[in-house]
Design goal:
Helices cover about 35% and strands about 20% of the residues. The chain contains 13 helices and 13 strands. The strands form three sheets. The chain has a six-stranded mixed β-sheet, sandwiched between helices. A five-stranded mixed β-sheet has the order 9-8-10-7-11, sandwiched between helices. Helix 1 crosses helix 10. The relative contact order is 0.18.
């Protein structure tokens, strides 16, 4: 079944930029990324394809991609296949790029992945891996909101109608027994859809009383005097829920399974490096953000933000199914048929070769 209304509206922000990060001059030998770091690629490296086009957000929750590109870890696994990278700041834009063939593989949140899958009747994408969990908080003005019950009657921002955090907040509101119209955001709580880039200014001006937002926006609000009232991870079993998936176009997966496997191998090795070297990885992600946006995050923002995100290969499929149920409950989605949204065979092949545990698709895998 397809969605009655998209989880993320297509009228939201467009692509920040399609920034090609040309990581190799000729596809062989020692390749220089934009920051001048050298990626060692064997001189006889096999060229799996001329290039692979990847997409991701300049967000900390997409640090697997940020660090994997910045440190050359993805390129190393791809050998002579050149990476062409584009960055986005909204899920719908990335899904449009995947559907148009502008990217082949992307890091993206669960709601746009669900929406992209259902709107195409299951024909355009597959989720092939996980990337990150957590990193979402309810941050409030402590002068106006001192406890969870004080949220009633207040103005709380979410990034956009039907996005992953919006759905989570609407579900939490319903669990309190409060009523809110999902489309307008009006009700016992005023849900104010606000771009993450301007949420801190909205908070400073007093036009919102708090926000249910991902990192690093949450830590930016704390730096402005806000208080973390709730960490969303506490609402989930084992404190884990998917915040970033890896998706691929079904066409590219069919035509270039070896390239897909190489990207997944690079992702797995990047997550392993991030978890083994958290401080170095944090600095690498910040350097990538500076390169993409012209600004790095200050320590008072990136330090707490980084600690709240878990980088992992498991796509946490059961939590994606639960998030879809929350969207249905909120009236933002007709009950979807997600059977086939996952193809974890390439990832499990990589994990097995690396001596790691295989992951489960919660019975939502392709036949």
């Amino acid at each position: 079944m397809s969605a009655a209304r998209p989880l993320t509206t297509l009228r939201t922000l467009a692509v920040i930029a399609a920034l090609p990060l040309l990581l190799t001059a000729c596809g062989y030998g020692s390749d220089a990324a934009d920051d001048g770091k050298q990626t060692e690629v064997a001189a006889d490296a096999k060229k799996l394809s001329d290039e692979v086009k990847i997409g991701y957000f300049p967000n900390l929750t997409h640090a697997t991609a940020l660090v994997g590109v910045q440190e050359g870890l993805l390129q190393k696994e791809l050998g002579g296949t050149k990476i062409k990278a584009s960055t986005f700041n909204a899920g719908p834009s990335e899904i449009e790029a995947l559907n148009a063939g502008s990217i082949d593989i992307g890091w993206i949140g669960p709601s746009p992945a669900i929406n992209g899958y259902t709107k195409s009747d299951g024909k355009n994408l597959r989720i092939i891996g996980g990337s990150a969990s957590g990193g979402v908080k309810l941050v409030v003005n402590p002068d106006k909101i001192k406890s969870l019950k004080d949220v009633k009657g207040k103005k709380i921002a979410t990034p956009q109608l039907g996005n992953t955090q919006d759905v989570a907040f609407l579900n939490w509101i319903a669990d309190q027994g409060w009523k809110v119209d999902a489309q307008s955001g009006a009700g016992d709580v005023s849900v104010v859809r606000t771009d993450n880039k301007i949420t801190p200014d909205a908070y400073k001006s007093g036009s919102i009383d708090g926000a249910w937002v991902p990192e690093p926006t949450a830590s930016k609000l704390v730096a402005e005097g806000g208080k973390v009232l709730l960490d969303e991870s506490t609402l989930w079993p084992d404190k884990k829920f998917v915040i970033t998936n890896i998706i691929v176009s079904q066409k590219f997966l069919k035509e270039h399974p070896d390239v897909v496997e190489a990207v997944l191998r690079g992702s797995v090795k990047t997550n392993e490096w991030i978890n083994a070297n958290p401080e170095q990885a944090k600095a690498s992600a910040n350097a990538a953000l500076k390169q993409l946006s012209g600004k790095e995050l200050p320590a008072e923002v990136i330090d707490p933000a980084w600690k709240s995100i878990t980088f992992l290969d498991d796509p946490l499929a059961a939590t994606l199914d639960t998030e879809a149920e929350h969207a249905v409950k909120a009236g933002l989605l007709e009950k979807p048929d997600l059977k086939g949204i996952y193809d974890l065979a390439p990832l499990n092949k990589v994990l097995k070769a690396e001596g790691k545990d295989e992951v489960d698709d919660a019975d939502l895998g392709a036949e």
